# Entry
Amino acid sequence: MKVSFKDLGLVNTREMFAKAVKGGYAIPAFNFNNMEQLQAIVQACAETKSPVILQVSKGARNYANQTLLRYMAQGAVEYAKELGWKRPQIVLHLDHGDSYELCKSCVDFGFSSVMIDGSALPYDENVALTRKVVNYAHKHDVTVEAELGVLAGVEDEVSSEVSHYTKPEEVIDFVKKTKCDSLAISIGTSHGAYKFKPEQCTRDPKTGRLVPPPLAFDVLKAIEKKLPGFPIVLHGSSSVPQEYVDIINANGGKLPDAVGIPEEQLRKAAKSAVCKINIDSDSRLAMTAAIRQHFAEYPGHFDPRQYLKPAREEMKKMYEHKILNVLGSNGKAR
Ligand code: G3H
Ligand code: 13P
Ligand code: ZN
# Structure
């Protein structure tokens, strides 16, 4: 049986993005795979009154089951209200959809937004696939994110050795032909906790930490110029907080030279046409750091609630920090 996202209390991204572009801030797009992550996201967004995009990846669907995740997102709306958030602005989004069939099934199942990631396809095939998804999704008022340009690293099944920046000269034609609602671009970000190889970075002589090269803001600017006011999306935008990396490494973990996107660059992007910033790895790091630290302090604990509670608290702190200090989305969904 088909269900509309509207019956679940969810919203699509249309109005949310229009406001974000105009207001010079970005909407957080947080991936979730389990209850603790979702609780932390909802608590952080309810407290800060931030609109939010809950993202479901292929990995999440394999891990947690798509049906369960959808009902959890529906529950998130009710939970948000219970926390005193009168009008929660929550989007349920398919992250990196890789086929028309998958996007269609998510639209039919109550998702309010889908991404069709045709970025690894030849240009014309990406256009055709995206257009097909948009045709179906728009009939149901579901918004569609597309991608042009390939991020380095692994994007579910989509992989590329090198980062191919989005070509500004292609974006007008792509958006016109596909009628997509937002566009994910490649300007040097990538997925995961190792966004740059040490040889791509310099080292801070004082701390010995890797300093990554800057994002290609010139490419972003050129895209903005071609598509004034059009919603742009940044994937791979975790900053890989070094405090978490240090805690993990000090407590039996091994994450050598993990490095992310410096927050000041994300702050700068959020003030531009970038209106959706994807963060997944930072949540994984927050959770792992808290759990490793907990086990080091309390080796006798074996009730998952004992170590998942501090993990949830750490994730909530991290989400709040992003909303308040990086994206500027606080107070935008009262
Ligand atoms: O796009 C990448 C996201 O971080 C999701 O990753 O497929 O391992 O859940 P995942
Ligand atoms: P990170 O790995 O940087 O958190 O990126 C997540 C992402 O882009 C999900 O689509
Ligand atoms: Zn992504």
About this structure: The chain has one domain: 5-281+316-327. Residues 31, 57-60, 95-96, 155-156, 191, 280 surround glyceraldehyde-3-phosphate (ligand 1) (CB under 6 Å). The mean pLDDT is 95. The first helix runs from residue 14 to 23.
